[in-house]
From TrEMBL:
Transmembrane segments: none annotated. It comes from Micromonospora gifhornensis. It comes from the Bacteria. InterPro entries: CAT-like_dom_sf, Condensation_dom. This is Condensation domain-containing protein. Residues 5-403 form the Condensation domain. Pfam families: Condensation.
Length: 409
């Protein structure tokens, strides 16, 4: 992905922390240094050897804390947000150092700490850990011991997917995906993108709090979590947009089955392919039970990334990751996924690494449905309608989950 799309869409991750009141810069610098000492991934660089990247774990060293002051601007907060967005879109040279910590002074009692990292060394779960750890280290609090550092887990995973257990993993996914085809999405009409049009369409709508409460209740009644509920709604929307009943979409799972890596920072996520079958004659609860089982089996076999499956496992035109579904924070709550910090994640939700990426973002008592897609392939009107249909379907299944709702208007 970095090779083919990295220049267009920087593969960066960010953790954002607003500090209210005075900022002890010396204490923050110590916390940054201790954070890198604690997590080997944050001081791991990568070198190319033939067609592979090799990890080089550097010894602990002082890490420069960049300083930016926006307090003199007419709108200091807006200037800070623009700097955060620039940081996100500026590539991190993983061959030199994988992180770039910055302290932005917005005012005398408002500072923003931004840790920008290459995606090779972090993921959503890791970002939650880093958000927790930087706060604790700054305040001098104790943190749990780390079981395995990332390199130890990488050795374990290599054995898992190439040793005696690998046959069961491959057999499971072959069985799950036998006869599966890629989603046939409607292509954009032959109208060239205007010179001033951005390369990506981004649409977001809010699912109201009372609907979200109903979705959580529905999940509890069906003995599952929110993720299969939101994924079932996505299958239903895709079915109505494409006419396809057998739908295989990609998702990213945390891939932390080993308790030793619960507090380890690194790129663990595994892309899995989840296959759902929509039957218009069945109620939504039947679809949800089916998807719940698909997700549970996917979790049990997530150690094998979909990229390692034999070519042609899923047939059709396009890439297996062309359609991606995610529920942010579905595995571990992030301390920076609320309030001001969530606002500053907007830049991350305005870029896409896939042809079509549908993301559900928890925000206070509501959920935000976000669709990011390639403007050369999909029109803004089509994207807007898809998200609108999704939000309407969410309300419809809460009102009556025992029937499959009619197509939204």
């Amino acid at each position: 992905m970095d090779h083919y799309r990295g220049q267009q869409h920087s593969l960066n991750e960010q953790v954002v922390w607003h500090l209210r009141g005075d900022c002890d810069v010396a204490a923050l610098q110590r916390a940054v240094d201790l954070l890198h000492e604690r997590h080997e991934s944050l001081r791991t660089t990568f070198v190319a050897r033939k067609r592979q990247l090799v990890q080089v774990i550097n010894p602990p060293r002082p890490v420069e804390l960049l300083r930016v002051d926006t307090s003199g601007y007419a709108n200091p907060r807006q200037a800070a947000r623009e700097h955060i967005a620039t940081e996100l879109s500026t590539a991190v040279d993983f061959g030199v150092w994988p992180t770039r910590p910055t302290l932005i002074t917005v005012g005398p009692e408002h500072h923003i700490f931004v840790l920008t990292m290459h995606h090779y060394v972090s993921d959503d779960w890791s970002n939650a850990l880093l958000s927790r750890d930087i706060r604790a280290l700054y305040q001098g609090e104790e943190l749990p011991e780390i079981g395995w550092q990332y390199a130890t887990w990488a050795d374990w995973q290599r054995e898992r997917i190439s040793g005696s257990d690998s046959a069961a993993l491959f057999d499971h996914w072959r069985g799950q995906l036998d006869g599966a085809r890629l989603v046939r999405l409607p292509e954009r009409a032959d109208v060239p993108r205007g010179p001033d049009e951005p390369a990506w369409v981004s649409v977001e709508l809010t699912i109201d709090a009372h609907v979200v409460q109903g979705l959580h209740q529905l999940a509890r009644r069906q003995r599952t979590t929110l993720f299969p509920v939101m994924l079932s709604l996505f299958y239903l929307v895709l079915h109505r947009a494409t006419g396809q009943s057998d739908l295989t979409v990609a998702s990213l799972f945390a891939n932390r089955s080993r308790p030793e890596v619960r507090d380890t920072v690194g790129f663990f996520v595994s892309m899995v392919l989840l296959r759902g079958r929509v039957d218009d004659a069945e109620p939504f609860t039947d679809l949800l039970r089916q998807v719940r089982n698909v997700v549970m089996e996917g979790l049990r076999h997530q150690e094998l990334p979909a990229q390692l499956l034999p070519p042609g496992t899923v047939t059709g035109e396009g890439r297996t990751d062309d359609v991606m579904f995610q529920l942010l924070g579905s595995f571990v709550p992030r301390a920076d996924m609320s309030g001001d910090e969530l606002d500053d994640l907007e830049a991350q939700l305005e870029r896409s690494r896939f042809a079509l990426e549908f993301v559900v973002v928890p925000q206070d008592e509501t959920l935000t449905a976000v669709l990011m897609c390639d403007r050369d392939r999909f029109t803004p009107d089509w994207a807007q309608q898809l998200v609108k249909d999704y939000v309407q379907l969410a309300a419809a299944v809460v009102a009556d989950p025992h029937r499959l709702p009619d197509s939204p208007s």
